[in-house]
Here is the input.
Amino acid sequence: MTNHPKYLNEPIETMNSDELREKVQQPKFLKQIKYVLSNSPFYRKKFKDAGLELGDITGLRDLSRIPFTVKDEIRESQAKFPLLGEHMACGWEKVRRIYSSSGTTGRPAFMGLTHHDLVNVWLEIASRARYCGGYGSGDRVVLTVNIGPFAAGSELTAFEKIGCTTVPLPPGNTDRVITAIQLGANGLLATPSYVQYLITWCSQSGIDPASLGLRKITVSGEPGGSIPAIREKMQSAFNAFVTETAGLADIAMSIWGECVHQCGMHLCAQEFALVELIDPTTGRSIELQEGITGELVYTAIDRECTPVVRFRSRDHVQMWTSKCECGRTSPRIRIIGRTDDMLIIQGVNVFPSAIKAVVGDFKPRTTGELEIQLAEPGPAAKAPLPIKIEYSSQIGDLENLKSELESALREKLVFRAQVQLVPEGTLPRYEYKGKLIRKLYEEKQP
Here is the structure.
């Protein structure tokens, strides 16, 4: 890894959690709530409907009294009041940039940024996350995330701030990506699906991925990097060190960044956003503690243009609160999946990423590729759940493999699957975000 100081902002990154909460987060939270209620018609109405006034919020202990904000509310507000909606909390004269979400779960939503939001907040958080992952002066990084209209595009500036040379390329032009890497890049930012696609592409082109010279790969956009079999596949193929990063465009492009100890992604927005865990079904708050799981909820505490308060991310995570070996004191997470992708099978909650993790354990007999076949809209799905799984061209006894896969899914995830084995290369590969579910009911519509 790059030889540089351990921290980009040591006082914040190593601060005791109680001290951080009392001296930094609580004052900023109270200031932000006052700002939001003074400037956002959206939140003034939301607080009024909940029977809350500014004086009712006296500290972080009152955070759970505030109602949640969900993505559909933001979209509806923006449809009625283009472009940024009624939760916009500053004048247009202060807006310097507008990003859109990728729109993978509905109509794209837009986020506005002032100079302060963009430079002092977003850039600081993302730079800290990239630095945490071992990047620094002298690194040359190819970025294949959606550069341009989407928030991930601003990763460029974060890498550059910490001394890296960046090579931005859009997904879908693999020849150029490989050429850029061969010209001396040692880092790559991409989705796990695209990194795996590169492995296949190299194999078909007679190129040993390890010969390309990549030494650092950071993946985002999907939970694949948290699946041990997928991470190991990427690391061994490229002889590179793989870390994860994650963000939410409504808060910041990068909120979480994994350090070189690879034990979960650190919160890198300590003084800019509050994080909570809730039960995704009941909405009740969950105490943050070692190994706990729940849905992430964010509150911006230093945002001028389009702040959100208690925003439901729909990301279901596992969290660790112990101090990391690297010395950072912030919570760490692994993303399990999205609560809106979760399936309920025979009364059991099942995430597609968990199915992929089980299938990945059968490598090299399987390629790790799968496709869940949904005949009806979820989240409820009938058992046995049909799943297409690719077998390796080297495997012989397919009946035995099918039986083992169905048994493993039943034992580890407590649901019955109907596995259909298909030859290697049958299922689609993705150059951006992979799709684990095929919605057959949509294909039947005229």
The longest strand covers residues 311-320. The two ends are 54 Å apart (CA to CA).
